[in-house]
Amino acid sequence: MTTHPNVLLVMSDQQRPDTLGFRGETPCRTPHMDRLAREGVSFDRAMTPCPLCLPSRAALFTGLYPHENDMLDNTTSALETCQLLETFRGGGYEVSYAGKWHLGQDNIDRFTDRAAGDSTALYSDWCKERGLVDGWTFNDPRVRTHRQPSMSTPVALPLDMAPETTNDAYIADIAIDHLRTRDRSRPFFQVCSFNGPHPPFVIPEPYFSMYDPADAVRPPNFGPRPGEPAANETSYYRRLFLDHGEDFEAWRKSYAVYWGFTSLIDDQLGRILNALEAEGTLDDTIVIYLSDHGENLGAHGLWHKMVGYEESIRVPLIFRLPGRISNGLRSDMPSSLVDVAPTLARLCDLPSRPEWRGRDLSGVMAGEEAPDLGREMFAMHRPLGDWMGTVPWRMIEADRKKLIWHLDGAVELFDLEADPFELNDLAASPGAADLRRDLLARLHDLMAEVADPRIEDFAAIA
Known about the structure:
The protein is α/β, with parallel strands linked by helices and about 450 residues long. Helix content is about 30%, strand content about 15%. The protein is built from 13 helices and 16 strands. It starts with 5 loop residues before the first strand and ends with a helix.
């Protein structure tokens, strides 16, 4: 095993961890993701520090919480520094990036040696040049809401194109070409960032019909919860939920096609793994598979993400590196996307950065350290505008107890071990008063530690 192994970081968009086949929680089949878990380590309680595309990716690539580098706006924020990629470039790695960037316009070349596949307009042109339908399905008005701003909806439709010409196959092709044409005198750090299974749910056969909608089981937390925070009732994404339908029957096809979309992504992952295996470098490469955030799919009566509930904040996080980390380990240690940077630096014998907020997970993966099962976890979100109808929130989880504080003063408290679907809010329960006080105090300390700009509001309200 080389001192400086290669790195392949594969990222999906908006993928819930219950889609991972090896977890057995849904009918979704993901043999290539399963292989990574079987030959590596899956962190089954991984979460995003912010359940929104740009802030979560900023946390991944900087090792910081998104407020620390002004990356909370999903449209206007832009990275000034990219600590993870800069660390690897500084360590002699060739850094290549294929696919979705979403961390600013015209800045990716500052952090990479090669980058392609981010522009959806170029992909649409690529389709047109080949006489194909537009594979960038967000351009299809049938899957966009009539509301403003116009967002994607849960509507599922078939896409009349071959799987190998879809946007995610196009991105996989770029990643494979980067690997094939790389500078072989240096180790590589290759990112492959897919757009799926983020909606719209418009995919080709066989994936569109791969799963039977009848197999979608209504989740216990589907629909609004009595006594929910006011921000849920007024949320733009509650309106999109209601537009699609309060009856779960309206959502069955959405679930089935979401699983099919995930299987399409899994097949693209398999193509990349096969390319590395064919040239004999797979076992000298750290493979990380993760997603930026989850998807509500009607849980708590909400569409999309941006809330502190499990369906929104949990993500897949899998590492594979034979000879350096365990095989087939499923860890319950709470982990976060901010852990990726320090972990990869340690595995590749590169210097860590003092500002990184995450933990190095390599000792846990090697079986050399006991997992910290009671670790405090922190997450946040800032609304994208008044149109969202929500308020900023902060979340702490410790010992499987979760507290969510909302800027309007609402507090939610859940015992995740007893109540994994977050149906029973304990915040007003006299029997949970001590737990509430403890978690509020610990959340205050966490916010102070990371210089959270909402700490004065928190102190005044909470």
